Amino acid sequence: MDKLIFVKMSGSGNDFIMIDNRDGRLDIEPRTLAERICRRRISVGADGLILVEASSKADFRMRILNADGSEAEMCGNGARCVARFAEMLGIAGPHMAFETLAGIIRAQVDGSSVTLQTSRPQGMRLHQSIEVDGVAHEVHSINTGVPHAILFCSDLEAIPVRTLGREIRFHPVFQPAGTNVDFVTVLDGCTLAIRTYERGVEDETLACGTGTIAAVLVAATLGLVSSPVEVRVRSGETLTVSFTGNGPEFDEVFFEGEVRLVYQGELMAEALLG
Fold first, then answer.
1. Regarding the domain delimited by 122-250, which CATH topology (the fold level of the hierarchy) does it fall under?
2. Active centre residues (catalytic)
3. Which of 58, 63, 237, 274 has its CB surrounded by the most CB atoms within 10 Å?
4. pTM more than 0.85
């Protein structure tokens, strides 16, 4: 492979490898590339790989591949990162629109802060009871670009996110696609705290944008919070979700947070060894 320049970015603890592939420079299948360079301690390491590609519908197209090589329809924190990446490279101005498998996303970049206007959520289902190891759990589900299952709890620290999250992620109710799983605590009428087990990463992540949005919209529909809502994620950062309309139908949804530019590098051939 010719020299492949990449940028490492973090959206509130959700980290991504960014590559400008508008000219089709990759000579390796994207799934394989994601699997190999997202490995921590062996290669670059990240929650996912994001490719910027040409689009006939918008300023560019975002492709997000999880660390396991699976392609996601949408990623909230990844979308914030790609917006800053595109503005930084001059691919788009500070006000932009880009294509995803979940639809057209609009973004505004203001320095390190990025605000998204996301696609409308779909398929909200409240008060589902599912059983895991003989214990019934009340779960609410919604698709905010990708599917999410929301469980409200009083003590986030006591939740076995990795084990219970994995059981729910693969639960028959959510097959065949599976689901992301978000454990949420309501701190007050405008503040939530969240921990997420992410499908495709297959572990807890320090933040999840679509999960943050999902938690807020479900909580709002249940009358637990009102717009705007601040959400404390595992990295310690705070994300903001605002919306118009009433659940389960929402007219506009906005998602705001900081994006960190970590470093730029040149990928070496040995980073791709199997």
1. Diaminopimelate Epimerase; Chain A, domain 1 (3.10.310)
2. 75, 208
3. 63
4. yes
